[in-house]
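Hi Y.,

Following your request, here is the sequence exactly as I used it, all 149 residues.
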Amino acid sequence: MKLPGHLTTEFMNKVYDEDPVPIEGGVSLEGQANGPPDFSDPRQAFALSQVGNGTVMDAVYPSRKWADVDPLLNISSGFPPTYIVHGTADTKVPIKLSRKLYQKLQSLGITCGMSDAPGEEHTFAAKMEVGSPTWDIQRRGFDFLQGLL
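Below is the corresponding structure, written out as tokens. Let me know if you'd prefer a different format.
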């Protein structure tokens, strides 16, 4: 990602002054946004700069104590029931990580399930259509959770 040259640390650090923190619009630290990037918005400039500079993990977890946040190292028998739906075309998170998580959950006896969503990227829920193959796959997760009630 090519970032504009005019972005300053002072401008992007305005995100720390936002009170309350916005919960709509903007962009995620995965680079997902509603529409084209808006580098006049400090929140989008900050997030996209982290993506572009390869510093997302430092931004979200500066202590770098990865063992504290690694899902595979923090699962116990009290972990909640979990259903994973992962797109096979995901370029942000390798599907092998979800499969490892699923195997770990199974090995600890956690009620869990997993489905692959063929051809889907990291985020696909917003473009699903009722009755589509992806809808049916996602529905398995909902049915799984409903079955726990």
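The chain has a mean pLDDT of 86.

Thanks again,
Q.
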